[in-house]
Amino acid sequence: MLYKILLLSLLLELFTVVSRVVFGSMKDRYRTIKFRYKVRIHHGYIGLLLILLYGFYPQEVFLILGGALFLSDALHHFVVLPIWVKRTEFP
Fold first, then answer.
1. What pTM did the predictor assign?
2. CA-CA distance, 18 to 61, in Å (whole number)?
3. Burial call 39-64: b when 16+ CB within 10 Å, e when fewer
4. Cβ atoms within 10 Å, residue 27
5. In this predicted structure, what is the pLDDT of residue 91?
6. What is the DSSP string of the chain?
7. Domain residue spans in the chain?
8. What CA–CA distance (Å, rounded) separates 21 from 2?
């Protein structure tokens, strides 16, 4: 199960990075979105919600998807962003 979580989180992060490169830089997209919406929901939060849901409904898909979303968000903030923008948060 752990390898499924790791593989899915790497695929999600790869999709995130590629989509940001194709559709514009992080900085430009964030400035556009920042003024429209005051609350940002990270996919890590959704992952935590799915992991909690696994406690009530023990379906493996909740744990795998939740773990992958949470790990992908952590990878994004603590690996990709420091490399890309030299910070752990959006500029």
1. 0.76
2. 25
3. eeeeebeebbebbeebeeeeeeebbb
4. 13
5. 46
6. -HHHHHHHHHHHHHHHHHHHHHS--HHHHHHHHHTT-S----HHHHHHHHHHHHHHS--HHHHHHHHHHHHHHHHIIIIIHHHHTSSSS--
7. 2-84
8. 29
The crossing angle, in degrees rounded to 10, of helices 60-75 and 43-56 is 160
pLDDT in tens, 23-69: 765 555 455 555 555 556 678 899 999 999 999 999 999 999 999 99
Q: How many CA atoms lie within 13 A of 51 on its CB side?
A: 13
Q: Which amino acid is at 57?
A: Y
**What span, in angstroms and rounded, lies between the C-alpha atoms of 15 and 43?**
13
The two tokens of residue 89 are: 């948060």
Tokens 């609350």 correspond to 39
